[in-house]
Every structure is written in C-alpha cells, then in structure tokens.
Amino acid sequence: MEINIPVGIKGEKEVVVDSTNTAKAFGSGLIDVFATPAMIALMENTAHSSVQDFLPQGNVTVGIEINAKHIKATPVGDRVKCFSTLEKVEGKRLYFSVEAFDQKGKIGEASHIRYVVDAVKFVEKLK
C-alpha cells in the first residue's frame, strides 16, 4: 500500500468549553476549565480529520504518540480552535504539529504522530 498524502495539509476544529469537557468532568482536576485530556483529544481529532480523505479506501489513522503542553487555562463558555499541519510522512507514519488557541491566545501546542492502518485488519488483530 502506497501512502500518498501531501505534506503541508492543514486541519482545523473548534469546540466550546462546557460542562462536558472541563478538568472537573474528566477527573483530571477540580476546576471548571478546559481539561488537558479534552485539549489532547481535540488535537488528535484535528490531525486525523485533516488527512482522512487522502487515505486509501478502508484505511484510518491511529494516534501513537503525542507530546503536548497545556500552556494556559480556558474558562467555560470560551471557544477553543485547534490547527494541525502535516509536517512529514515516513512510510505509514504521519508527523503533525498542532496548536490550540482560545480568544486570548495560544493555550496549547503538541507534536503528534499518527500511523496509517487498514481498519478491518486492525480490529481483527484485537480479537
């Protein structure tokens, strides 16, 4: 299987901080601010969504590594925008840079690696 995904692909996603994605709701803290696990999930979703249309039929990407920094807290009600860029492709490995922003500025950044897999074969191996 040849992976032919152009480097430089950009992704963008946005969420509103609400009671479902706070540190308190995730159990990662006791304050009602945007949770680090929610930020990381947004980062992964932004990256994976950006390349899905370029993958061979039946293939998906799975996250295998993320190195993230959550720089600043974001309160309930604020919007968080996430941007990803595909920096490099090595075989089935896709390397992304990802940043997240609220209305006041950057709240997080990450390097993220995803791996291209055949969805059916991947699930079969789990059985």
Brief overview, please?
This protein is an alpha+beta fold and 127 residues long.
Span between N and C termini?
24 Å
Determine Rg (CA atoms, Å): 16 Å
Q: Overall 3D geometry? A: globular
Averaged pLDDT = 96
Strand order of the largest sheet: 1-3-4-5-2
Supply the number of structural domains: 1
Query: How is the CATH topology named?
Result: Thiol Ester Dehydrase, Chain A
Task: Please specify the SSE layout and strand pairing.
Elements: E1 10-16, H1 23-26, H2 36-51, E2 59-70, E3 79-90, E4 93-102, E5 105-118, H3 119-126
Please explain how this structure is put together:
This protein is of the alpha+beta class and 127 residues long. The protein has one domain: Hotdog Thioesterase (Thiol Ester Dehydrase, Chain A). It is built from three helices and five strands, in the order E-H-H-E-E-E-E-H. The chain has a five-stranded antiparallel sheet. Strand 3 and strand 4 form a beta hairpin. The longest helix is centred in the middle third of the chain and has 16 residues. The radius of gyration is 16 Å and the shape is globular.
